[in-house]
Amino acid sequence: MEQKRHFSINLLEWYDKHKRDLPWRRHRNPYYIWVSEIMLQQTRVDTVIPFFNRFIERFPTVEDLADAPEQDVLKCWEGLGYYSRARNLQAAAKQVKELHGGIVPDDKASVFALKGVGPYTAGAILSIAFNKPEPAVDGNVMRVLSRYFLIEEDIMKGSTRAFMESLVVELIPDGRASDFNQALMELGALVCTPKSPHCLTCPVMEHCSARQEGKEEQLPIKTKAKPPRPEYRVVALVEGRGEHSGRVLIRQRPQEGLLARMWELPHLQTPAARSGRLPDEPAMDILAGALLEEGIAARPIAHLTDAEHTFSHIHWNLQVYRCREEDLPQAAELKAMYAAGDSGEPSVQTEYRWIDEQDMQHYAFPNVFLKILQNYFKHSSY
Ligand code: SF4
């Protein structure tokens, strides 16, 4: 009991003196807090700050976000990754506009019902914005609690999380839920760090059980997630000719699934998808065939660069080839055939566009393609 009391008192005293000045802390605006918490998932504070400022400037209210074209929201999110967060945030903003008159609700059931809002984010919104004594337990918080209270249970287990949530509810001092949850997060981010925690400057060191037993580096216990599955892909950077001169070809991803509706360079998984990088010649042959099948009149001419991107479950290894637009009559025939579809009805067509460097601002790209395109335009001789 004493250990718990010390924790809450010492932590809050420290937070009151040392809390960082973060843009979403300057006002207790629930919309700002909500946006910041979504951005902070899997992303560090320093990275989030400029994105947050730009996002709020572009979409200052829930209604502005709800009413914006999706491509504008994705464009503003470009570079932050995990784009389903942005799509869910906008879907939830529409819910707030339609069901709550544009005002972020402060009751648990309504907050939990918002798209993309799980137990952690709901707890963060309710506590930070509305000072409700709700737990907001993420990896940072579980690390601090595991160490301070010497909890040697696997933090990947639902039962451990549930236990920690009830522990946080006990620890929150009356009337200070907002500060307490932020203090806990702040301690995890600044002091009780994953590697080499700064115990000597820690405000709760005196009663920290892991520190007393010399186990701070061994906690928390966490089963390892499966490593992402590698995929090898060949990518076409098609340079236009004639009316497309100075432009490259991009396409839109499907309506659903990974990176839905974002824009990218045409690419496909190679048959050696699991076994490693292909030599250039077979890679270019595969790409040539795939471009033709898509009705794209272009030929691969040289290797341009390699790139990588990790999603939570897949690791892309991309081999990028410069391709030149050419007159290939077979491509035009195939395109016409696809457009007609089997039954003579128009089929669902992939959207392609020819863009130059200036046009890039109108399209949202996953980071890996954004970098390839930026580098290409920077170094190309157009
Ligand atoms: S004393 Fe060390 S291990 Fe314990 S809470 Fe502080 S930083 Fe973490």
Keywords:
alpha+beta; Endonuclease III, domain 1; Nucleoside Triphosphate Pyrophosphohydrolase; four-stranded mixed β-sheet; three-stranded antiparallel β-sheet; 45% helix; binds iron/sulfur cluster; MIG/MutY; MutY_C; Adenine DNA glycosylase; glycosidase; iron-sulfur
Write structural notes for this entry.
This protein is α+β, with helices and mostly antiparallel strands. It is elongated. The protein has 15 helices and 7 strands. It folds into 2 domains: 212 residues, Endonuclease III, domain 1 (Orthogonal Bundle); 151 residues, Nucleoside Triphosphate Pyrophosphohydrolase. The strands form 2 sheets. A 4-stranded mixed sheet has the order 4-1-6-5. The chain has a 3-stranded antiparallel sheet with strand order 3-2-7, with no helix packed on it. About 2% of the residues have low confidence. The protein starts with a helix and ends with a helix. Bound molecules: iron/sulfur cluster.
Please summarize what this structure is:
By secondary structure, the chain is α+β, with helices and mostly antiparallel strands. It has helices spanning 2-18, 30-40, 45-58, 62-67, 70-77, 84-100, 108-112, 119-130, 139-148, 158-171, 177-190, 209-213, 280-293, 329-340, 367-379, and strands at 229-239, 248-252, 263-264, 267-269, 298-310, 314-325, 352-355. The strands form 2 sheets. Strands 4-1-6-5 form a 4-stranded mixed beta sheet. Strands 3-2-7 form a 3-stranded antiparallel beta sheet, with no helix packed on it.
